[in-house]
Specification:
The strands form five sheets. Strands 2, 14, 17, 18, 20 and 21 form a six-stranded antiparallel beta sheet that branches. Strands 1-3-19-15-16 form a five-stranded antiparallel beta sheet, with no helix packed on it. It has no helices and 21 strands.
Length: 350
């Protein structure tokens, strides 16, 4: 059986510093190349050449170098060359059932409260396995008191460190929402109090939790987040509330200006062959409007920490897609550390 593999060539992710002038060329770092072709070597192992090593926190220090092996069992993660997404039309999407039809999944016992302890019940919609950029609706309305009525709610949240978003309106609301903007695992726990006791009291310990998995469903998913040590309020939002980095995803036809001064075009900022905030939905391949061979910038972030997300449903066999990060404006917050993750059909490969 022919096994496809993914090859990533990484130039390195480093701390970037920017100034406030947009008429000056700011630092640009090549995050990597994605080759939509290739076979696993005879020894059964595909290799990611030149992948920068990471420290314990998962960040890539400046100047790091190394090689990471891609397990052979990650084969078949890219389309077979015999199937060309440029000509294979996409199936018609299923109609949106609307919020009324959203499936609520429940943790806790909605039937009864035992003894003198209230019983929290956690319901989540649209489900416990969703794609990035989903806004999760939580509900504690089905929680049961042991005495009187439920008097208060308190939610706690565990989320990937790159998802800098809080519950809205706050953690004391009975039915908050939460944006799950990056891939990973999220856990929501609920404590409630009635007129006599709370579910997290030592005698009760009846808190209820629900886990949600956020998994991309596209062939290539690229996610940029960043840390800015000088920004001490990562959860705030608004104009100039944080630094601004930009994710770039280029087609092999991209030429663009010679930013690094080596006498050769770099490809970045090419229109139409660089997908970034100014060119978020380029037309790269087939003229078929139902084809899945064009990238899509799903999220741009201008006020700090990200994420910025680009996805491609149908990479064309043989194409080499390049990934880059540009520090557009630090908004006086200083240097930042960029972090890029690449998932192929939901599997983390970088």
């Amino acid at each position: 059986m022919k096994t496809s593999s993914l090859v990533l060539v990484l130039a390195g992710l480093v701390a970037l510093a920017a100034c406030d002038r947009h008429d000056q060329v700011l630092p640009f770092v090549t995050a990597g190349d994605v080759v939509a072709a290739g076979n696993v070597a005879a020894d059964g192992v595909a290799t990611l050449d030149g992948v920068a090593t990471t420290d314990a926190a998962g960040d890539v220090p400046a100047g790091a170098d190394g090689v990471t092996d891609l397990p052979a069992e990650w084969g078949d993660v890219l389309p077979d060359p015999a199937s060309d997404p440029a000509t294979d039309p996409a199936p018609d999407p299923a109609p949106d059932p609307g919020p009324e039809a959203a499936a609520w999944e429940v943790a806790g016992d909605p039937g009864h409260a035992e003894g003198t302890c209230p019983q929290p019940v956690v319901a989540v919609a649209p489900g416990t396995e969703v794609v990035p950029l989903t806004v999760i609706s939580l509900s504690g309305d089905a929680s049961l008191p042991a005495t009187g009525a439920i008097q208060s709610f308190h939610w706690t949240l565990e989320q990937p460190p790159q998802n800098k978003f809080n519950l809205a309106p706050d953690e004391s609301a009975p039915d908050p929402t939460h944006p799950e903007n990056v891939a990973g695992e999220y856990t929501y726990c609920l404590d409630v109090c009635d007129e006599q006791a709370c579910s997290n009291d030592a005698k009760c310990q009846t808190a209820a939790c629900r886990k949600v998995s956020v998994i991309p469903n596209t062939a290539i998913y690229v996610e940029l987040t960043w840390d800015t040590p000088g920004d001490l309020a990562p959860f705030d939002q608004g104009a100039n509330a944080g630094s601004d980095m930009d994710l770039h995803f280029t087609h092999p036809f991209a030429t663009g200006p010679d930013i690094d001064g080596d006498g050769k075009p770099d490809g970045w900022f090419d229109i139409p062959y660089d997908c970034f905030w100014f060119n978020p939905h380029p037309d790269w391949e087939s003229m078929n409007p139902k084809a899945l061979d064009d990238p899509d910038m799903k999220r741009d972030d201008t006020d700090g920490w990200g994420p910025e997300i680009v996805s491609l449903d149908g990479p064309v066999s043989g194409r080499v897609y390049r990934i880059g990060v540009h520090y557009w404006d630090d908004h006086a917050w200083g240097f930042s550390y960029a972090r890029v993750r690449v998932l192929i059909w939901g599997q983390l490969v970088l």
